[in-house]
Amino acid sequence: MSSDVVAVGTTIDRLLGDPREPPGILSRESILAADEAGEMLPGGEDLLTQLRLNDHFVPGRLGGRFDRADHTMRVVRDVFRRDGTLALGYGVTNLIASLPIWAAGSEDQQRWAADLLAGGGRIAAAYTEWDHGSDFTRIGTTARPTSDGWRLDGDKHLVNNLGRADAAVVFARTDAQPGGRSHSHFLMDLRDQPEARLRRDRRFRTAGMRGVRLAGARFDNVRLPGDAMLGEPGSAMETVLRVFQVTRIVLPGMALGMGDTQLRLVFEFAADRKLYGNNVIDIPHPRSVVAKSYAQLLGADALALVAARALHVAPEQTSVISAATKFLLPTLLQENSYELSLVLGARSYVREGEFGLFQKCTRDLPVALLAHAGGAVCLASIVPQMPGIARKSWGSVGHAPPTLFDIDGPLPGLDLGGLQITGRGRDSVWAALTLAEGMPVLGDLAGMFVAELDRIASAVRNTPLSEMTVAGTPRAFMLAERYTNVLAAAAVVGIWRYARRGDTWAAATLHRLAERSGLRPRPLPVGLEDALIDSLAARVKAGTPLDLTHDRDLP
Fold it and tell me: N or C: which end of the chain has fewer CB within 10 A?
C-alpha cells in the first residue's frame, strides 16, 4: 500500500489516541459507558468531524479523499478498532448512502451532497422495509409524479441515522410493473419536511451496536422537487448492483478493526495470566488458538485488500469477489471471536473493566457485518456466475495481474461507472495460486487449493444449470462457499509474491484456510507458530495494527 495512506492512517490513529489510556474521548471506559447507556460516544462524533472523516467518503474531484477504496477502508478501520458503534453510526452509513449519488447524481446533486458531508452532515440510506428486508424488488414505498415533482408514500425501517440525518437517499418504486426497471433513487433533504408528512421518531434498540440510531420513518404525501431523482427513471436497481460492490468489500474490511481489538485483548490476557505455572500464551492449545486467529485475521485482510484493488484494476470482475468478501470476512471474524472467547474464558462475558471491550465487539460484529447484504444474499449472487467462470477461467492458463496484489503499489482512480453487474465468466484472482509452485510448504499448500478449485469446477460443470440460480440447491450454495476460501487463499499467495511480506505468515494463513476448508494439510514446520506469536507480540507492544499494510517485516 502506498506511503500516503499509511501516513494518513497513522495520523488518524495517533489523533484518536490509545484507548488503554484514560481519560481520552475514546478510552475503553468511555466507550463501554456509552454502550451501556445505548448512546453514541459523547464527543466521539465531534472528534471525527474535527478529523474530517467524511472527506474519505467524498471523491477527490468534489474536494474529498475518496479516490481509492483501500485508503478509505484502512482509515475507517482504525475507528472500528476503537469503537465499531462510532465507526458505523458516524461514517459508514454516509459512504453507503453517498455512493449512488456519486454514481448517478447530477453535478448539482453531487456538489450539494459533498458540501453537506464536508460540513459534518449525515446522509441516510433508506432502503429496507419491514415486509421485504433486503429484497429490494418488492419494496412498497412509492414515488409518483406530480405537476411539480414527486409524491413519496410508504415506510422505511431499520435505517441507520434516519431519525437524525440531514438528508436521505430513498429507494422507491416508480413503476407498478414487476422487474428491474421499476425503482428509482431520490435525494431528499430531510431538514425542510413538515412533521405531519414525514414522521421519523421511531428508534429500534439492538443487542449489538447499542448506540447506533436505527430508525423508522413514515412518508405520507411527502413532496419532492422535480430534480430529486438520481439518474434516469427505473435505474436504481442497476445502480445498487454496481455500487454496493464497493460497500461489500470495504465494510467488512473496515470491520476487521474489531477483530484486531479482540485478538489484541486476548493476547494481552494470555501473555500476563499465569496458569499451571506458565503464562497462558505458553500453553500449547491456547497458543495455537491465538496463532491461528492471527493467521486468519491476516487472511481476511488479504482478501479485503485484493478485492479493494480489484475495484480499480478489474472492475468488470468485482461482482464475484465483492460478494465473496462480504460472505467470508464476517464468517472468519465470528469464528475468531468464538475461538478467542474460549481462551479468555468467563471474562469474555463481562461488559465492564479491562476486557469489557471484547464482549462489546462480540455483540457488535454481527450487526456491523449484516449491513445491506447477509451471507445468503452474497452466495446467491455468486452461484449463477459459477458455470460461466468454470467454463471461461478455471483450469485454463491463468494470469494474475501484479497490480491486484502489490498492496504497496499505485492504483488508478475509482471509476464507479466501470463496475459491472456480472463478471461474465472472468476470474483473474485464482491464478495467483500457481505463483507458489515449487516453493517448500507454500507450494504444497497452494497446490491443495488448486486441486480444490478443480473439484469445485468439476462439480459445477456436472450440476444442472437449473440448480445454479439465486434460488439454487444447498449443494450449489456449498460450492460457492468453498470457492470463497479459494479466492482468499489466492489473495494470500498473490500478496506474498508481489508485496514481499515474508513466508511464515503466508504459510500459516494458507494452512489455516486449508484446515477450515477440510483439506487436511500436513502439520506446519516446527518454529513457524513461534515466529507468528513473536510477530504478534511485537505488534501488540508497539500498538501497530494487526494487518498487512503497516508492517513490511512480517515473518
Answer: C
